[in-house]
Amino acid sequence: MRKDYSTLPRPSGVDELPEAWTESENSHQFTVTLLAFSWALLPVGFMVLMAVFDRYEQHRLTLAAVALTMLVLAFISGVGQRKSALLEPRVQLATATLASTAVLLALLFLLDLSSYWWVVYGLVFGSVAMMYVSLSYLASCNTPAVHLLWDVSVPIPNEALEGWRVVNGRWVNGVIATKRMEQGPVLTLYGLVEGEATLLCLEQLAPVGASPPPHAIDLDFSTFASLSVARSAEE
Predict the structure, then answer these.
(1) Together in a domain, 34 and 112
(2) Model confidence over 189-202: pLDDT tens digits?
(3) Which domain-ending residue is among 108, 140, 172?
(4) pLDDT (tens digit, 9 = 90+) per residue, 195-231?
(5) Which of 59, 72, 166, 169 has the largest CB neighbor count within 10 A?
């Protein structure tokens, strides 16, 4: 899943942005996610053996709980690296599958319905497939984020975010606005603290070759740049 971003082409339109906007370095480490996912497959493999052979039946649900816990940890390590991850349909489907598996597993434990172990096993196996699809897509989304310096006292210009869902009208260290493009990537505008600087960042959840040009995002980069530059000039 890990990719060498230094050898990838630049996303379309980066050079067209106002000077205040700067391309961020990619710091995503999906090697850790791949390692965690690989380890999670070990108990899943034992689950396959238990499903085939009628031995150690009393440990079936316990093994499923261990496998599910390791899968969830691996999933979180990958999803947590992307601000837009939970808005991506593949990730949402994998999240729903993992959540359903956890709820059903808890019910089987509480109601002592171990005879229905095969239902949980089927969901765990399905979760592995859903996780692989979603995490592979997240790893392929290598479009670098762009950012500019932002003063926390300056309100976010909502008029410069046409068609966006604005979550916060002022700068926060987190998600500020989101947008899901038709048959395109998920976009997230978010605040970030880097050292003593406060940044306003834009993330496109898309492979670098499929990222839309700036004019198609419906975000007025010039307005944000002018507010950033004007505030810097006052200081």
Answers:
(1) yes
(2) 999 998 888 999 99
(3) 140
(4) 888 999 999 998 888 888 888 888 999 999 888 765 5
(5) 72
